[in-house]
Amino acid sequence: MPRPRKPASPFRYFNSSPEVIRLVVMMYVRFPLSLRNVEDLLFERGIDICHETVRLWWNRFGPMFAADIRRQRVQAMRGVQHWRWHLDEMYVKLNGEMVYLWRAVDHEGEILESYITKTRDKAAALTFMKKALRRHGSPAAITTDGLRSYRAAMSELGCADKQEIGRWANNRVENSHLPFRRRERAMLRFRQMKTLQKFASVHASLHNHFNQERHLTDRQTYKERRSAAFAEWSNLAA
Length: 238
Prior knowledge:
Elements: H1 18-30, H2 35-44, H3 51-77, E1 84-94, E2 97-106, E3 111-117, H4 122-136, E4 141-144, H5 148-157, E5 163-165, H6 171-186, H7 193-210, H8 219-234
Parallel strand pairs: 1-4, 4-5
Antiparallel strand pairs: 1-2, 2-3
Helix pairs in contact: 1-3, 2-3, 3-7, 4-5
């Protein structure tokens, strides 16, 4: 019998090593650095690449790495008891116009879903929630702000009884916007809906992967979790 072929490496057409490509993608997406900042930091470490190469690599490999991380986390979180979601929307400037980034975050701070729309009405909320529920399953409770679009969408989905609204109950998702805001300023805004949607999804997955909630653990536990995160990162698309 013929031996099954190994899947082709996604790095096979690139002269740089997979380790360098993973480092470039992680630096650009995870930290508030511009393309040229990443180029300069790598040059200091003896890696000479152009800032346009940084752009090419994050566009090419960022979604692939994010999909691997998301797949592992979705499998791990399915069936969790007392799973609570927090939903919120934030505005993002796109060529001088306001668009909305809808985000779902669970009770542990994991960013579950990011979705871009031009409106903030029932149809947008319904599309966002259908996408999140289809991928992650149904939670025990859903905390939102007072936006009536959530109530209308949840009534149509048959889960209005799970909605909870409180003055400070949604601080979990409000605080999760901050890393993306810092990243947005470093990128000097976005220019296309497609690019914004792609970067928001990739940034969310990488933030989940490397966010260890350092203020809640002791130093030794943090170091062990950080080492495990980097070891898992080095095996992505291996």
